[in-house]
Structures are given as structure tokens and as C-alpha cells.
Specification:
190 residues, mainly alpha, 2 strands
Amino acid sequence: MEEFNPKKEIRRIRNDLRRLEREKESALPGLGKLAYDAFREGKITDEGLAPAFGQVKALDEQISKGQQEIQRLEQQIQQAAVQPPAAPVVPTVGACPACGAALPAGMKFCGNCGKAVEIAPAKPAVERCSKCGAELAAGVRFCGECGEPLAVPAVPPAVAGPESGPGKCPQCGAESEKDAAFCGECGAKL
């Protein structure tokens, strides 16, 4: 028979206690979860536990909001995958005289009924000189900046007399833009 050794017994008990402490540590989270669930259901109303449970409840709310945001974004991704890309917007310049369908720029035949159509090219809102790019006044025959002759004035020129003065051409008397270097009517240098 082995003689009783107190040191050995202490070691054995300490080992058992360490094992029991580890088991306790692994059981506490489950107990805490059960206690928190009971608090949420109103089964535990201890004032001392309320702050700790309140903190966990706030974390639960943040987690829930994050999960909802993920679901919303996933739905957005699914909808984008299902929906075909939007068709490009094609500018129209008029309607077909036969069927009334919209006619995209540059079309020579109606895409709806096939009838040949004639559409005048759309004029830009502001006409510009082809040589220097300066903005042109309506009805001029020459660019007021560089003197370049223009093919056809957009609006027939106003009849001008031979008198000259401020803002008038000294050669033909036509009104000119105040910063123009050349007369828009006759091309004379201002």
C-alpha cells in the first residue's frame, strides 16, 4: 500500500480544479445567452443585470441593422442582374408623315412603316465659324472674328444703308458686333 502523500494529493486536486475551471468557462457563455434571452422575454428583471443586458441588446440592434442592409444590397444586386441594361436614348428629329412614329436623326426611311422620309438636318442652336470657331450672328456672310466668308447666312441679312457709326461697318453700314474684327455682312476689316 502506498503511503499517503499530501503533496501528491494537492497536485491531484489542483489538476481537478483547473479542469473544472475550464469546464465552467466553457459553460458561462451558454448560461449568459440563456440569461439574456430570459431578460429579453421579461423573465429576469434584476436591476443589477439591466446595464449589461442593455449593452448586449444595443449590440443586437446594430447586428440586426447590418444584416438588413446586407439583404437590401443583395436584393439590389439580384435586381440589377435580372434587369437588362437600359436602351440608349436615341434623339429624334421629327415624326414620320405617314404613320407618326418618331424618327431618329439621320434616318432616310421610317423604322415603323418603311416609308422614305426627308428630314432637314437639325441646325445647331448657335452657329460657329468653321475656321476659327467664333459664334456667328444670324444673317452674316462673313465671320466677324477672322473674316472667313460663310456659305449661306442662317437668316437673310437686314438691308443696311451706307451710313456708318459706332457698331456699324464703315463700308456697308451694317450693324456689327462690338468686338468683331471684320464686318459680318461684307467682310470689311473694322
